[in-house]
Amino acid sequence: MDIKILVADDDEAIRTGVKIYLKQAGFVVYEAENGLEALEKIKQEKFQLLILDIMMPKMDGFAVSERLRSEGNNIPILMLSAKSEEADKVNGLMLGADDYLTKPFSPVELVARVKSMLRRFMDLGKYTNSEEAVLTLGGLVLDEKKRTISVDGEIRKMTPKEYQITELMMKNVGKVFSIDEIYEAVWHESSLGMADNTVSVHIRKIREKIEANPKEPKYLKVVWGVGYKMEDSI
């Protein structure tokens, strides 16, 4: 199966370079020069990954990511930016991006990030017909085959990372995970100082989606000084 990747960046030189690197790695690459064009192409074609620049005309990368997630589109998103500030990275992750790459970047790192994201995302769909295909905790239900999470029968839209964190915690109810353990289990790389903000942002977003009162969580609880756990006494 061809793996199709959409590259959205208003810089033609960047688009061309990325397209060359990815085609050499065996991917089929499409281009968009602004956010609106990217959204239109996503409506017309099924892509396996979106490479999304932040600063674009008509609609920036943050807005595109937020729009896609609000519509329930869980396409993996790799954000590109000339900015290296942590606030921009956190903002991108909050709005649904799955990874972040700062310009300038090397072709080797770009291709490695893309392959890693695709591998993790595609692995989520490889489930067996075992009894563990549906995980249930009170009114919280995770269906591994459909890759859906619902609360009291209502489907909650999750980004791929939010889904993976919830899946990790629901498969280990009662176990306390440190922030570094969550990061390394879901991102499959050493935290290198990025774990705290990244994981905290995702936990907050998950709580907003599964908890009746995110400030007093019923399911996903903090263990102060240690990490997080999925409550086992519901």
Automatic annotation (TrEMBL):
<dbReference type="GO" id="GO:0000156">
    <property type="term" value="F:phosphorelay response regulator activity"/>
</dbReference>
<protein>
    <submittedName>
        <fullName>DNA-binding response regulator, OmpR family, contains REC and winged-helix (WHTH) domain</fullName>
    </submittedName>
</protein>
<keyword id="KW-0902">Two-component regulatory system</keyword>
<dbReference type="InterPro" id="IPR039420">
    <property type="entry name" value="WalR-like"/>
</dbReference>
<dbReference type="GO" id="GO:0006355">
    <property type="term" value="P:regulation of DNA-templated transcription"/>
</dbReference>
<dbReference type="GO" id="GO:0005829">
    <property type="term" value="C:cytosol"/>
</dbReference>
<dbReference type="GO" id="GO:0032993">
    <property type="term" value="C:protein-DNA complex"/>
</dbReference>
<feature type="DNA-binding region" description="OmpR/PhoB-type">
    <location>
        <begin position="132"/>
        <end position="232"/>
    </location>
</feature>
<dbReference type="InterPro" id="IPR011006">
    <property type="entry name" value="CheY-like_superfamily"/>
</dbReference>
<keyword id="KW-0238">DNA-binding</keyword>
<dbReference type="InterPro" id="IPR036388">
    <property type="entry name" value="WH-like_DNA-bd_sf"/>
</dbReference>
<dbReference type="InterPro" id="IPR016032">
    <property type="entry name" value="Sig_transdc_resp-reg_C-effctor"/>
</dbReference>
<keyword id="KW-0805">Transcription regulation</keyword>
<dbReference type="GO" id="GO:0000976">
    <property type="term" value="F:transcription cis-regulatory region binding"/>
</dbReference>
<keyword id="KW-0804">Transcription</keyword>
<dbReference type="InterPro" id="IPR001789">
    <property type="entry name" value="Sig_transdc_resp-reg_receiver"/>
</dbReference>
<dbReference type="GO" id="GO:0071555">
    <property type="term" value="P:cell wall organization"/>
</dbReference>
<dbReference type="InterPro" id="IPR001867">
    <property type="entry name" value="OmpR/PhoB-type_DNA-bd"/>
</dbReference>
<keyword id="KW-0010">Activator</keyword>
<dbReference type="Pfam" id="PF00072">
    <property type="entry name" value="Response_reg"/>
</dbReference>
<feature type="domain" description="OmpR/PhoB-type">
    <location>
        <begin position="132"/>
        <end position="232"/>
    </location>
</feature>
<keyword id="KW-0597">Phosphoprotein</keyword>
<dbReference type="Pfam" id="PF00486">
    <property type="entry name" value="Trans_reg_C"/>
</dbReference>
<feature type="modified residue" description="4-aspartylphosphate">
    <location>
        <position position="53"/>
    </location>
</feature>
<keyword id="KW-0678">Repressor</keyword>
<feature type="domain" description="Response regulatory">
    <location>
        <begin position="4"/>
        <end position="118"/>
    </location>
</feature>
<keyword id="KW-0961">Cell wall biogenesis/degradation</keyword>
